[in-house]
């Protein structure tokens, strides 16, 4: 009886911890860091894509993309993207049809922030992009900088640019497509994610497979059936 009561108490404590920290965390598969495409091939093939198929992105591919964006690449805990005074101010939020999660580079995990689908808010006027299976939102917490004279916003923009470029090149190597965007419904996104005034939404990246690839796949499938 005492053992049963103890197990119930532990379960209740776990549930309360999940509620207190805003959501559950899910470990991602280990990222594949052995891309066959060279850096210069990725640069040659980089382009902006604004129309996406509805093909889902696997957890394995997402893990590799997030690691490339701002994952840990050294035992010291430093990241793939540099930041001013090593502030590590950039957080990457992953938005899909199931809601929004926050990437934790130290643990290579995703923590649920909300179960609301905010892709339409991120697409804003460019509604055709809302069908992209994933959006990566780059948020800078400027409270991590020691400067409070406006300089911190300049560093935030620069740091977001480094992460954005990592994403641009990684999607090419992974056979995906994206376009860096400043446009989004900032009020709606800020409310949905519960961001503070020091957490600035810098850029977002819709990520998926190009729409034309979907059409080609359909033709191929149709030909196979014949």
**CATH class placement:** Alpha Beta
The fold-level CATH name is NADH Oxidase
Q: Summarize the helix and strand pattern as letters.
A: HEHHEEEHEHEHEH
Count of discrete alpha- or pi-helical segments spanning 4 or more residues: 7
Overall shape: globular
Give the oligomeric state of the chains in this entry, treating copies of one chain as homo and distinct chains as hetero: single chain
Name the poorly predicted regions.
1-21, 214-226
Number of domains: 1
Based on the coordinates given, report the CATH architecture.
3-Layer(aba) Sandwich
Radius of gyration: 19 Å
Which percent range fits the helix content?
25-40%
Strand order of the largest sheet: 1-4-3-2-5-7-6
Rounded average pLDDT: 87
The helix/strand class is alpha+beta
Explain this structure to me?
With 226 residues, the chain is α+β, with helices and mostly antiparallel strands. 39% of the residues lie in helices and 19% in strands. The chain has helices at residues 2-20, 39-45, 59-70, 119-123, 151-173, 186-193, 211-225; strands at residues 25-27, 90-96, 99-104, 109-114, 134-141, 177-178, 199-208. The longest helix has 23 residues, at 151-173.
